[in-house]
Write a structure and sequence with these properties.
Elements: E1 3-11, E2 17-25, H1 28-34, E3 41-44, E4 52-59, E5 62-69, E6 73-77, E7 83-92, E8 97-98, E9 101-102, E10 107-112, E11 117-120, E12 125-133, H2 134-143, E13 157-160, H3 167-180, H4 188-206, H5 218-234, H6 242-249, H7 253-264, H8 268-285, H9 294-300, H10 306-317, H11 321-330
Antiparallel strand pairs: 1-2, 2-4, 3-6, 4-5, 5-12, 6-11, 7-10, 7-12, 8-9, 8-11, 10-13
Helix pairs in contact: 2-6, 5-7, 8-9
Length: 331
């Protein structure tokens, strides 16, 4: 049985739950049992006492997990059908092999649901991973006008990282934030923004090449930006996502990207982030109690990292959110 550190199930509408699990283990079988629905088998191959750790965060068909082991372990199993998993090494020694290929820091692991994998770990390894429902990911790809290219991620294997890759840092930072502030997952807006960011990162890994948007005329790009800004003004009190803009304007993510870059000198994600910061500021300025939870307001506007929210807020407005709150209460 797993040495259980903690588990939480945060209430959600319609009987759904957000689950958080953290386990310390002292046996390879205990470690294998932490990741449910994978049919895993772990066999310890190096000598010495086994120490492992596993943490998992699930919401809306997404599972984030982090796994640490201190021995060479031969792993077999297959993810649940209808899912895909991408994993990044945070720390690892030499000698690992995944599906017959040597494991290096230049690669990520790709696992398709229902396909068997085998992974011989290094002596010590820490990895972070995200598992997503393929239907939800496919719907996102449709909304942004793109699909992962056929053959890019067909079977289990290694995917080479590209220079702008941010999977490892994003997963590590995201899980750290949820670990410290699990209540952030109560907010539907927060979960939607997290899912959007994860799907965008996965799409970049599956389809890193540029395909469309560069040959648009100046008038077309201006039209795309105008339509996007009109939609933003109509929904000024809502945290809008890039995929919503793509679906509304009926353009691809790359077309939106090139249009914003050419017309406004910025990308749509940064523009939307500033819109959300303005929305959070308006909400803070409406407060009448200096003890109002700024972190909750930030979460409702899709900011999942409190210290990063404060830094971005200060960079845009020249003051911390706490200063805005204090001034609002005084008036």
């Amino acid at each position: 049985m797993n040495r259980f550190l903690g588990q939480a199930a945060l209430p959600r509408p319609a009987g759904e739950t957000v689950s958080i699990r953290v386990n310390n283990t002292h046996d390879a079988d205990e470690q294998a049992a932490c990741l449910t629905d994978w049919g895993q088998c772990y066999e310890q191959m190096s000598s010495g006492a086994f120490d492992g750790r596993f943490e998992s965060y699930c919401f809306d068909g997404v599972e984030l997990f982090r796994e640490e082991t201190n021995q060479v372990v031969q792993q077999y199993g297959q993810p649940q059908p209808g899912t895909m998993t991408m994993a990044a090494l945070l720390d690892a020694g030499d000698g690992g092999r995944f599906c017959g290929a040597p494991v290096t820091s230049d690669h990520h692991f790709f696992l398709r649901g229902g396909k068997e994998f085998h992974f011989r770990t290094p002596q010590r390894v820490t990895l972070a991973a995200v598992t997503v429902d393929m239907e939800r990911f496919g719907a996102y790809c449709q909304r942004v006008g793109e699909l992962p290219p056929p053959g890019a991620c067909v079977d289990n294997g290694l995917i080479r990282k590209h220079p702008q890759d941010e999977l490892a840092s994003m997963l590590a930072s995201l899980m750290l934030s949820i670990r410290h502030s699990p209540d952030m997952l109560r907010h539907a807006t927060m979960r939607r923004c997290l899912e959007e960011g994860l799907f965008s990162t996965l799409l970049n890994l599956c389809a890193p090449t540029e395909r469309d948007g560069k040959d648009l005329t100046a008038n077309t790009r201006q039209y795309v930006v105008n339509k996007a800004r009109d939609y933003m003004r109509e929904h000024v009190d809502e945290p809008i996502t890039v995929s919503e803009l793509c679906a509304h304007i009926r353009v691809s993510r790359r077309t939106l990207q090139y249009s914003f870059q050419d017309v406004l000198g910025t990308n749509p994600a940064r523009y939307l982030r500033n819109m959300r910061l303005n929305g959070a500021r308006r909400a803070i300025r409406r407060q009448t109690d200096e003890r109002a939870p700024v972190a909750d307001i930030a979460a409702r506007w899709g900011f999942w990292h409190p210290s990063r929210f404060s830094a971005e807020y200060r960079s845009l407005f020249g003051e911390l959110p706490s200063a805005t709150l204090k001034a609002a209460v005084k008036h």
